[in-house]
Amino acid sequence: SNERRDSFHSHPPHPSSPLFNRPTPTMGFKGTHPSASVSVISSASGSKHGGGSGSHRRGSSDPATEPSGGAPSKKSSPPVATKKLGQKWVRNFRRRASATRLVESAFNESGSVDLLPQGQGREEKEIKIPLDITNVEAMEAASIDIKERIREKGSITACESAEILQEKMRILMTVWAHFPGAMSSEDVLEGYKKVVERRGDTPENTLFAQSICPDEVNHEEGDITDIFSKYCGECFHMGGLAGIPFTGKVGFGAFSHHVPDGDGHCAVLMAPHIGIDDKGRFGSYLREGQSHSGSCCGAAVGAYVHCRSGKPIPDLSVDPEFYQFNYIINRIHNRMDEIVGETECAKQASLSRFMHQIGTELLSKCVNTNFGGDKSTLVVLTGIQINMPRPFCDFFLPLDFYIMKKDGTREDVFDEAFGPKAAEQNYCRPCM
């Protein structure tokens, strides 16, 4: 219902925000029929044929894509599986596809869907009542896990599907509770492009640099580092541990003098990162091929644990091979009182914000506009990269976005890109 939707989205996008008037996304995955990813959820039968593998294409002649009760197209023969299983299976398949379309239509119109009616095992499975789906990305992530369950066991019940969906919504609500305003990397790029392209900055006349932790989880396909590099082109790497721009003034000087001739521009993306595992614990992440979660960001968490343990604080003039880690320890030690929280999750979230402060403070000492022509500018976007548990796409919390001009003045373009008070909004578009 709309009331339940409003209670979840306690801070809706401002009407002037570019996020407010986005077209409602459809469910499903890129290149698949939108109903294929959720058809098993709407089926109460739990048949191993109900969900499919997502292979039904948009515009296909499969029974799943025909109107309820309709016949297959005369231009092509029914699938081999349909011939073997007979007309009874065809009727059941059409009925499931029809139910799926009803779910999708209700979701796109009202913003939430209750897929598990009363009496279908809620009580014994402790399913939260009501079970509403209020986010497309939660549906997509759940659909992937549901498909895997079907492949492993051959079928899935409505109650089991509901449990998976509930878990995905719980993960999202945990993220938004600590990082209101976190959004998909695609949304961040769209906001960035909207601002810079209005001012004539293009990939052809702008050189891009990023200061991101070298941890491999930050550089996977679809992450903000990946999509920005693909849009901007060549990328200069300024970041060390925790995303702090350890290349310093020398590194920025080398980077800025690589700008295109004339009024070339520079753009910098700087962000620390924080992981969240499938249990909803911040500062942890379950990596590919491992059976247990590990710390993420490892450098930030390790330095924080060092300071909490009461161990001696290392001298920065000693052990240069540990300089970056020792630098982080010293900075955290000097301002431990700023890392606060009633729970460990809250403390880890506070730690990531503090790492953002460390990074931005050092970045501000390194950057300048001593490059290019009279109209050359420096664009700076900073925030926190949130490594989401698979199969979610990573999120990003933008915190600062400005353009520095030749005279040293800064134009704050945050609201223009992400809307007024974007840091208080709970919004995310699906990563397709």
Short description:
With 432 residues, this protein is an alpha/beta fold. It is built from twelve helices and ten strands.
What does this structure look like?
With 432 residues, the chain is an alpha/beta fold. 38% of the residues lie in helices and 11% in strands. The protein has twelve helices and ten strands. The chain has helices at residues 2-8, 80-110, 122-125, 136-153, 158-178, 185-198, 224-232, 248-256, 298-309, 323-334, 344-366, 414-418; strands spanning 183-184, 206-212, 235-237, 265-271, 273-275, 284-285, 294-295, 378-387, 395-404, 410-412. Strands 1, 2, 3, 4, 5, 8, 9 and 10 form an eight-stranded mixed sheet that branches. A two-stranded antiparallel ribbon has the order 6-7. A hairpin with a 5-residue loop joins strand 9 and strand 10. Helix 4 packs antiparallel against helix 5 (158-178), helix 8 packs across helix 11 (344-366) and helix 9 (298-309) crosses helix 10 (323-334). The longest helix has 31 residues, at 80-110. The chain is globular and about 65 Å long. The relative contact order is 0.14. Mean pLDDT is 76; it is low at 1-97, 117-125 and 422-432.
